[in-house]
């Protein structure tokens, strides 16, 4: 992200946050600090437990390890800065920091969703095709699926970043959010944002619907298979 250059006269953005009420801010600080600490401690604990246990070597646990790392990373992108900003009246983020935040948010979120989908079909194979599961699902395939998740995340976020890089920002620079968000940035742009908004909304919506129906279909098949096995036995 070092090659990014702030367009025109905008070098930083002001984040309004969730509230300006100091009492509510204190409550939010306590709640989200607890959530953040729990997330960054629980997910590494999952990784350590799976890594040290010789009985947890199935592909599902390999994918679970990667999912835990993604979850901890995703939480660490925005929450720490927002918690610190609760104690500041003026919450500033630089142009490069904002673009980096957008990139990591969408990259990690897309990768996490793809891994969740892969895990659902891993369970489908283990339950519905048990005789083929152990021969097909090996360590090499799991590594390949993780690489696919990375590539999918990069492809997803590249569109957002390219659109943001060609937009013109000439003020105001106040974001009505506690993080840098793609559509919040579109509202601040001086240039035409109709096409970027439509393309990104259609792409993100299509991706969510596709993954939703893939997950739904896999779990319907799994539940149907369990029901038939239960009635037989």
Q: What secondary-structure arrangement, pairings included, does this model have?
A:
Layout: E1 12-15, H1 22-52, H2 59-85, E2 92-94, H3 95-128, H4 130-136, H5 139-166, E3 174-175, H6 182-188, H7 194-232
Parallel strand pairs: 1-3
Antiparallel strand pairs: 1-2
Helix pairs in contact: 1-2, 2-3, 3-4, 3-5, 3-7, 5-7
Describe this entry's structure for a reader.
Helix 2 packs antiparallel against helix 3, helix 3 (95-128) runs parallel beside helix 7 and helix 5 (139-166) packs antiparallel against helix 7 (194-232). This protein has a single domain (12-232), classed as Rhodopsin 7-helix transmembrane proteins (Rhopdopsin 7-helix transmembrane proteins). The mean pLDDT is 84. The chain is globular, with a radius of gyration of 21 Å. The relative contact order is 0.14. It has 233 residues and is mainly α. 74% of the residues lie in helices and 4% in strands. The protein has a three-stranded mixed beta sheet with strand order 2-1-3.
């Amino acid at each position: 992200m070092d090659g990014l250059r702030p367009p025109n006269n905008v070098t930083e953005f002001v984040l309004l946050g969730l509230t300006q009420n100091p009492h509510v801010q204190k409550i939010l600080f306590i709640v989200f600090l607890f959530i953040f600490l729990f997330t960054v401690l629980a997910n590494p604990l999952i990784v350590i437990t799976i890594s040290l246990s010789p009985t947890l070597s199935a592909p599902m646990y390999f994918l679970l390890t990667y999912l835990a790392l993604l979850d901890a990373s995703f939480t660490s992108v925005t929450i720490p800065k927002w918690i610190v900003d609760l104690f500041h009246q003026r919450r500033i983020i630089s142009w490069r920091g904002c673009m980096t935040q957008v990139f990591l948010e969408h990259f990690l979120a897309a990768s996490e969703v793809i891994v969740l989908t892969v895990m659902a079909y891993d369970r489908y194979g283990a339950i519905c095709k048990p005789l083929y599961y152990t021969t097909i699902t090996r360590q090499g395939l799991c590594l390949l699926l993780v690489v696919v998740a990375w590539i999918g995340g990069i492809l997803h976020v590249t569109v957002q970043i390219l659109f943001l890089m060609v937009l013109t920002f000439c003020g105001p620079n106040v974001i009505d959010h506690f993080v840098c968000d793609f559509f919040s940035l579109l509202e601040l742009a001086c240039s035409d944002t109709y096409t970027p908004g439509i393309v990104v909304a259609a792409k993100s919506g299509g991706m969510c619907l596709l993954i939703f129906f893939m997950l739904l279909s896999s779990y319907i098949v799994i539940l149907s298979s369990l029901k038939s096995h239960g009635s037989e036995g």
